[in-house]
Give the backbone structure.
Amino acid sequence: MSTAKKEYKRVTVKSLVEMKKNGEKISMLTSYDYSMAKIVDAAKVDVILVGDSASNVMAGHETTLPITLDQMIYHASSVIRAVERALVVVDLPFGSYQSDPKEALRSAIRIMKESGAHAVKLEGGAEIKESVKRILAAGIPVMGHLGLTPQSIYKFGTYTVRAKEDEEAEQLMEDALLLEKLGCFSLVLEKIPAELTKTVSESLTIPTIGIGGGKYADGQVLVVHDLLGMTHEFNPRFLRRYMNLYEEMGNAISNYVSDVKSQDFPNDEEQY
Ligand code: KIV
């Protein structure tokens, strides 16, 4: 059952702010390739994130750090070719925006120009202020990302819940207000207490999108491979699995192997 309040033929950054105003929750999901993005877009997910989580789920790295700008552009352009309705946001990968604002702008321009994406996402608050400003000044929409920011995993040391203590929660709130003031159109809040998500969401006019941020965010995001149960070893509390594709795909592939071995496949109807 759909609970959409308004039909959007094409979701834009403005549509998201409008959804928040209308009390309509925003759905966001990752995709990294053409075939998956076709399915996700046809299911009317509002925002498709070409996340740097591609580093984990597509390339098998332990963290998001190794993925390169060229690789992100490759994933993003595959997604863009599939999408008709969703807003496509692409992560600026680690190392492509932290050193200086000019480099950040060059990276964002490459993503927009070479993939056809609609917006970029950057992790961090005050420390990346100048980069966010410069990218926005070039007319590129920016989504922020606070809380657990996986590109800083070696600084945090663990993937546990962030901003449980007052000091970090206050800093997060300040950063959220700053990102809104700079002109970001939306903000991902990752793995923070639900009550903090509530306070932040109520203090901003731009929508918050939670992952492990609880029910008060203006929208939710998950990694599509997690939602479909393809990544069966990853079991955080915030994850709701809608399928067990790891098992279902495994069974289908085992059946194929047996059919080939037993010479059941191909049969007379499956040949020329
Ligand atoms: O890369 C990603 O998939 C993300 C989401 C977890 C928000 O940044």
